[in-house]
Amino acid sequence: MKTNIFVLPILLTGLFACDTLITEISPEDLPETTSKLVVQSFISPQATRINVVVTESIPLFGESGSSTSVIKNAIVKMSGGGKEVTLLYDSTSQLYTIEKMKFPIVASETYKLSVSDGKRSVTSICTVPTNQVTIKSYVIDTAYLSRRNGPDTALTVKMIWQDIPGESNYYRVRANMDIEYSILEGTNPDNFEEKRVRNRFSIRWDDNSGRSDFQNDVNLDGTSFTSPLGRGFLPSSLLYTSSDGTKYYAKQKPKLIAMVMEVNNTEKSYYEYHQSLRLNERTDNPFAEPVLVFNNILGGLGCFAAYNNKQLIYNP
Q: Which of 15, 44, 94, 103 has its CA 20 to 30 A from that of 63?
């Protein structure tokens, strides 16, 4: 009984103490914050265009003064190799862009990006990796999987590439498949016409095997690397609803035209930026501390980085 007599006051004291942890803070006492320019651009000698996305962050306390986060009136300049260009805003894609032929990106060259909206100015630099990797081999196969709407067909791909010896390397693997398939055109079942179209579908990587589409050669210099298993689903049956509401199904008869595989030799900043984004997206624990997103934009937020791309195309 003596134990109970002493425990109760302690518990009550704890309950009252918790009340003191809740403190109302006056808005005047909150730290002043302003929105920052957010810039994202990844350049490569093999890319057909140079694209720069310019938005603004939303202040932690308060709201952004802009109705949208996209900045449309910025001055975006890129320089390197003794040349400087101004990228123009494209309203359709909502980014600043220029054709490769007007400003070629060269391996080993260092480039500077500067962005200003009249009130805020940011800069960043990056250096294009010198070397490309060698894709040693690949395996493309067919998989039949059960899904909610019935069995489905997928193409799988796995690549092996050789690490570039004598230097620190950071890699990203990608793959796309160009598929030809059928669609129906018409307004009633008497005049349906089958039309063949082509589209590109992205391959998604399964990292449950312990491998990732982002890898580095720390303690693995000069060795062979293997990608995770990539999987892309083929168009199967097409649901078509006619003008009177009748539903029809048609086989799309997909045909693989090409499998485009690539391994990017990236800057460390490119690797760290994407890895930090991924860690933030995969944080399921509500009590876990947020991961800081990598930033190399001086005066703002975001990432400006480069990669050298090696592509291999399989045509069946």
A: 94
